[in-house]
Fold these 2 entries.
Entry 1:
Amino acid sequence: MSIFGSRDVAAEPAAAAESVPAESVPAVPAEPAVPGRPAVPALSIRGLGKRFGDVIAVNGIDLDVPVGSFYGLVGPNGAGKTTTLSMATGLMRPEMGTIRIHGIDVWQHPLEAKRLVGVLADGVRLFDRLTGEQLVTYSGLLSGMDRPTVAGRVADLLRMLDLEAAAGTLVVDYSAGMTKKIALACALVHAPRLLVLDEPFESVDPVSAANIRDILTGYVRTGGTVIVSSHAMDLVQRMCDHVAVISAGRVLAAGTIDEVRQGASLEDRFVQLVGGRRHAEGPEWLNVSQDLPLETP
Amino acid sequence: MVRHLLALRFLVLKNTLRRSPWQLVGVIFGAVYGVGLLGGGLLGLIALSTQPAEVAGTIVTLGGSLLLLGWVLIPLLASGVDQTLDTLKLRTFPIRLNTLLLGLFVCGVLGVPGVVTLLLALATAATWWQHPLVALAAVICALVAVATCVVGSRMVVSLSSVFSSGRRFREVAGLIGLIPLVLAGPIIGYFTAGIGGGPMGDFTALANALGWTPFGVIWAVPAELAAGHYGLAAIRFVLGVGVLLVATLLWRRGLAVELVTPPHTANRTSAPGKLGFFARLPATPAGAVAARSLTYWTRDPRYLRQLVSLIVAPALMIFYSILFNSLGYLNAIGPIVALVLSLAIFSDVSYDSTAFASHLSSGLRGVDDRLGRVWAIAIFAVPVVLIVDVVSVAFSGAWALLPGILGLSIGLLLSGFGLSSVTSATVVVPVPAPGDSPFKAPPGAGFSNVASTFATWGILLLLVLPEIVLFTIGAATGQAVWGWLTVLVGVVLGTFYLWLGVRRGGARLDARGADLFENLVRHA
């Protein structure tokens, strides 16, 4: 797993990552999800590692996302999902490892690779003093599309995501769910071949979530590839065809949903893989029914 | 509770500084600078004790007024105010308003500027050591004055954020409403400049006038005592305490409103299909960046604040030209405006904060990013500078100097754009986050902003040295050819620096964009 293409990799981080090898990583077959498609994965990650100070956030991740797959990335809080996706989309420089998108190395040829990807990043601001319509238009124009194409697509996206009424409202005044949706529109507008969505369903209402799911499923059916990170196991189990479980910066299991869940529900399998479930009630002082007199103000 | 708030403030400060060492460097340099200022001030104040009481009183009143003016104005114009304890975040806790007020006040005193001000103010007692009773009064007045400094700055910021929490036009109105306040000093100066003759006479007159304004009234008390005017001293003291009380009440009102006003009460909507600048600028990546920047220049209060200093600089020059009765100062307005505007995009990426991710992940070429940002500011900066040049010369009447002034302004503007294109792709400076009050300063911001601004000015000065030399020769010899040569060099050399800066800055973004973004995340 010592594929250290980056020139600024010191010997020490490599040793640190190798001392804790990801022994439980099953070999992911790089076979195409749809028979007859080329075997170059939409996203291929090899030996990815990243530290923040003393904390190892990503500790030797290998992952292959086949073309045309709907890939779920699940893991507990702080597992390294966002860090992995940030490095895969060129937002964060990996300390070691290589990332290829449709065979193009993201860190050797960033501009070419980035044109193939649509990104919805989590915990990142938007240019929220623009109106929703302006923001999506901006994303389209940044990717170098011409004005009529952008205008048509922006109208389509706003309609599909139920944002037409809010098209002229500043994004800063959007609710959390609407903000997610407009960010998704920004990721979709240049018709990428790979969609990387970090927590796309967080705080989105059920109806919008179902609409988004339909859009994504249709996109996958026509040959697009989607990676979503999520905490909602049910959703991943129903929506995705592949899944990877990540914990403490390593891949614990990866493959098709059925391969990973091994007959159990994804949630049970997840808890079993990751561990850390506690069967305990809260502390005694949190017990409101205690006969504490209410202080009168 | 107050102690708890204070502990919280220092804990937050410590953790923030641990996260970004450069801010720590900023704070340390700020402290060193403060100590230097303190030492100089102390020596000066002790030396004053050998002067006649009248002179000492004049200097103390002038200095004190300046100090208080600085406390009130600097947060608005330059650095913002340290809001380590964000009132918005404290809203959910059951803290009494008066406790919060006291807590914020103590936190304000116990910062680097607060401590330096306190020690300096107390040192005014040393000026009067030959009159122990006056020295005692000076100590009491100093305490009132320092409290007024801290409360005054909080009051202005609190009121301005109350103004700016509403709709956009109110944001703008809040900023514009501050301008008269900003110009209060020069205006007072104007009305008093005519009195008295000679430089010391001017100062005495100014001190007399300031001594009856909210800024100087408390500082003038000891001198009145020393002169034996007990009645006047008592009146001034009462007025000074009154100023503190009024400021406190205003701040309390502002804080009370802030506590119950949600951060976004505005609901700004335009009709669908209205793309604004996006429809008017070319549909290229660089054009889109320019349209986005222009939209922010008109909508984001943080950008608008940079334009306020644009009005202040010429106003100061006008003030000087009246004070010293020389129209020559007016000629400097154009180049100063060019300087301010050229470096206004110097922290552009820092203002983007993590929204810069959309540039990074879309595969936008660095050159297009740089070009778009320069384009946006050039659209209004170039005409503004040219008009200001011509208008200011029209008032000063120095038409012979116009070509030189134009050349210098163009050189400054273009070279500054080039320089800013490199710096904003290289360094992340601590700025208020998007949506925050434009008057909020991250810790250590004051000094690191001043330091980086001066460093950038120094480099810019070197870049435009040829224009400066040519302009000076032209002004000294009075030969028109030098002025026209300045225009030529300004345009050619400026364009070259602009081209170089956009190229270098763009290449830097392509190569190190991800590292810049990581830095932005750390500051977010």
Entry 2:
Amino acid sequence: MRRKILIVFLVALVAICSLPGVAAEKKLTVISGWSGPEMDAFMPVLEAFEKETGIDVDYQIYRAEDLAVLLPAQFDAKTAPADVIFMWAWFIAKHAEDGHVLDMTGYLNEADFIPGALDPVKSGDKLYGGVYTGKVKPGFWYRKSFFEKHGLEAPKTWTEFTALCSKIQRISGIKAAIASGNGVGWPLSDITEHFIASYAGPDITHALIDKKISWQDPVVASVFKDKLVPLLKAGYFSEPIEWTMAADLWWGGEYGLFFMGSWITGMVEDPDDLGVFSLPDCKGIVFAPDYAFAPAYTKYPEEAKRLLAFLSTKGQEIQVTAGGHISTYAKVPLSVYPAVDREVAALLEGVVALPDLDDTIGGEWQPAFWDQLKLLWVSPGRVDEVLETLQRKAE
Amino acid sequence: MPVSGTCPGGDSVGQTRGRIFFFLPALILLAAFVVYPVINTVWLSFQTPEGEFSFLKNYAEILSEPELVDLRGFKRGFPYGALIHNIMWIVIHLPLTVMLGLILAVILRDVKGGAVIKSIIFLGMVTPMVVGGIILRFLFDGSVGILPSFLNLFGITRRTLTAHPDTALFALILGSLWLWTPFSMVLYSAGLETIPEYVYEAAVIDGASPLRIFFLITVPLLRPVTGVVITMTFLWVLKIFDIVYVATMGGPGGASNVLALQMYMYAFRQFNANAAAVVATFLMIVALIVSIPTFRALRGDEA
């Protein structure tokens, strides 16, 4: 009797699971590195997709550094931890070559995006990913109240910039003119890229990315030796400090300037007190979009592509309203941006938008770049050795 | 000659089969998840990324890279290369772990509240290494760190010890000591409990000083424990990765790079499994060279 009941129960269970809507319920998983307030700002985007399509989306947090370890092994096993994954563009392009990424050609219209935004995830005519919002790395942030209190002004020439640093350095209670943020090294790379774009120019930045010019070339070396190193030797930059702590110390008045991306607007108590200036003679500003892709091993390829297309288009409009993000989708109206982001967007006028140098090159070179800059910051006299190492790693 | 139905060891056939039955799952798991990966890693280290057999060419190339050995360091200072950094870890970390663990265990044995103090010291051991690495970053920070503040009392200028090439490696070794010494202290504490009280009483009656008791009774009788502490610490230092990755990422300028981190860089940044396999095989060989004689010596002691 018991056996019969068990058989009937199992048959019923199989039948229920076979019903459409139970077994076939689709749920997509999205992975990105955003947590805390950044995640809170991203969730409305996923909720909008769920509302529009009726497809559930689960969100998981993984840092790009961890994904770099996890994904290659998963791809070898022909599986993937999510249906849409935010990752470095160079990583997407590399694994697309090996067939681990879904082809997105035809799902996004390139003309709807800012020029070149999709290039890093393209291979020939094929498109292997979607582009999301970007963050601008416009230059040095300051507190307007701090500048007013001490009679300081944003510089318009290199001489004025060094004079400003000197003046801030002499203010009582100031530890150094500029707070140097440190993570694993990337905030220093942002500063350096800004110097290269300003004093060697956007073409040199592109040439360095394409490995068409040496890091020891006189033009590149001059940016380091004539601009960056004298400031470091003068002690205008602090030694590298964990970047979130550096932001607090700068906001608290221990430093006068802080180089950071546009996401700083979402990190401070009063964004209206924020002012920003680029280096005098700046010819290019880094505009770094986030990229995402759908792995070839997703169970729901069509739905994953649909989500990726949504994130790249309508999703961007929802995201920028939260602040700190600039859309790469040209159809997002300026009116939806918070005021401080419109100010950041204005800095981009008249200068070339550049890709993030180390994110674009990637690979082993990227952490080497971060690491060598950490050395340069505390030992500026070793600049030749730093440039030699960067060139050796680039070869 | 064994009796029919009895194995050479004297066990019955049934007993032997039973043993094989219970041993087999473990053997299969070991073969699949330990033996096969080890053999495959060694094989990978002899191959080019294209899969061609290259014998020792990879070893010659990898071991001559400045990331592994940088002789310019002897003129200019850090970095010296990951291999030399690992040797420095061993030379500094190993004796300090043994000495500190032993001294703490002896001192805290008879102190009132010693168990509580030992528990507090042991917190370092139970702290996850990644968390330990993050704590080290703040511990050595020039603005908020305890150590730079302490050194400042003696007139030494505050600076972030992990940010400078001449102090980064030493700061990490110091931090690792905090995290690892509790292990040796606990082992020595357990070892001290095994020394009979009458041995000490006899020494005291004979008029031996506390120092003579320590060097002529405690230290020799703890020799097997010391062997375990040395072996385990050596292996710990050889595979050190997490706190370096989190606290300095091997920097600045490679000044605190270590072999395990370099292996990670080859595997997950260069995606060069062959180069990573070379470092892994090298680490395995060194670990075997050190641990096998130690365990043999310990077995000899037990016998």
